[in-house]
Amino acid sequence: PMAVIGEGCIVGANAVVTQGTHVPPNSMVLGVPGKIREGVVEPGSTLENAEVYVARGRQYKEKLRRLD
Questions:
Q1: SS3 of 21, please?
Q2: 3-state class (DSSP) for residue 5
Q3: Cα–Cα distances in Å, from 12 out to 23, 27, 41, 64, 68?
Q4: Which of 22, 26, 48, 51 could be cross-linked to 41 through a Cys-Cys bond (beta carbons 3.0 to 4.6 Å apart)?
């Protein structure tokens, strides 16, 4: 059986979500194996977080410089 990730969830980098796991909406999964923290993500915040992430990437690309 496959894992089911609910709407609005955040799965951390390198988190392991095992087969058959059901992650409720607006939850966060972190760790190996993934531990679920239910209801910690504000509804609708994942899109806002993604937009901020992209904007910061652009800012870093434009303004940071290499220090040798």
A1: coil
A2: strand
A3: 13, 11, 13, 26, 32
A4: 26
Whether residue 24 contacts residue 40, with contact meaning beta carbons closer than 8 Å, is answered with no
Q: How far is CA 13 from CA 16, 26, 36, 65, 67, in A?
A: 9, 17, 14, 26, 28
**What does pTM read for this prediction?**
0.68
Q: What is the pLDDT of residues 31-52, one digit of tens each?
A: 999 999 998 988 878 788 889 9
Nearest CA to 42 out of 55, 28, 32, 52 is that of: 28
The helix (H) or strand (E) run that includes residue 35 is strand 35-37
